[in-house]
Amino acid sequence: MAGIKVFGSAASPSTRRVLLALHEKNLDFELVNVELKDGEHKKEPFLSRNPFGKVPAFEDGDLKLFESRAITQYIAHRYEGQGTNLLPADSKNIAHYAIMAIGLEVEAHQFDPVASKLAWEQVFKNFYGLTTDQAVVAEEEAKLAKVLDVYEARLKEFKYLAGETFTLTDLHHIPVIQYLLGTPTKKLFTERPRVNEWVAEITKRPASQKILQ
């Protein structure tokens, strides 16, 4: 049976989300580069892998998936007994799983839309020769601050967002945070003590360092 393949860009936060999960699980895989600047993700053969034209796409043998958060959940469950456990310590405890699921939803719908806009304005626009819109940055930073205030309160109670162990909830945040730490938006993380500790903890993980190489 064919091995694991990830079709995407090593610079893409969504692709990195999947690569993180694979590294945490110590799984062998092949990264097949999709050149975003050339619009490869909007053409065949990539569209046959994801009809919405967004990276990454994923194959594990005959199984074909897209949407990074669905892929990481597949990896966490399919390879639960291997590498880092990315699910709650007692993954059969429905209450604990539901708490992690809340965190996954908050990351996807509250954190990521804002954080990704900030990364686009301050990092990715530079790749395309575009100019940062400081008004957009100010507006989105105000939104992100409110999300991080919620995180600060949560992290006063628990080491990680879903409890006392590292889970997918934390992992999903890492790629965009890594980019934002290289921008003035870093201050929103560092000025909140618990958030700052959490960010330091999750970004120093070996898997987090591997995706930067």
Topology diagram in text:
Elements: E1 4-8, H1 13-24, E2 29-33, H2 46-49, E3 57-60, E4 63-66, H3 68-78, H4 94-127, H5 134-155, H6 168-171, H7 174-180, H8 186-190, H9 193-203, H10 206-210
Parallel strand pairs: 1-2
Antiparallel strand pairs: 1-3, 3-4
Q: What class would the helix/strand composition place it in? A: alpha+beta
What pattern of helices and strands is seen along the backbone? EHEHEEHHHHHHHH
How many domains? 2
In order across it, which strands form the biggest sheet? Answer: 2-1-3-4
User: What is the level 1 CATH name of the largest domain?
Assistant: Mainly Alpha
Biggest pleated sheet: 4 strands, mixed
The mean pLDDT is 96
Number of helices: 10
InterPro entries: Glutathione-S-Trfase_C-like, Glutathione-S-Trfase_C_sf, Glutathione_S-Trfase, Glutathione_S-Trfase_N, GST_C, GST_Phi_C, Thioredoxin-like_sf
Protein name: glutathione transferase
Pfam families: GST_C, GST_N
Family: Belongs to the GST superfamily. Phi family.
Structure description:
The chain is α+β, with helices and mostly antiparallel strands and 213 residues long. The protein folds into two domains: 4-79, Glutaredoxin (3-Layer(aba) Sandwich), CATH 3.40.30.10; 94-211, Glutathione S-transferase Yfyf (Class Pi), Chain A, domain 2 (Up-down Bundle). 54% of the residues lie in helices and 8% in strands. The chain is built from ten helices and four strands. The chain has helices spanning 13-24, 46-49, 68-78, 94-127, 134-155, 168-171, 174-180, 186-190, 193-203, 206-210, and strands at residues 4-8, 29-33, 57-60, 63-66. Strands 2-1-3-4 form a four-stranded mixed beta sheet, covered by helices on one side. Helix 4 (94-127) runs antiparallel to helix 5 (134-155), helix 4 runs parallel beside helix 7 and helix 5 (134-155) packs across helix 9. The longest helix is centred in the middle third of the chain and has 34 residues, at 94-127. The chain is globular. It starts with a strand and ends with a helix. 36% of the residues are buried.
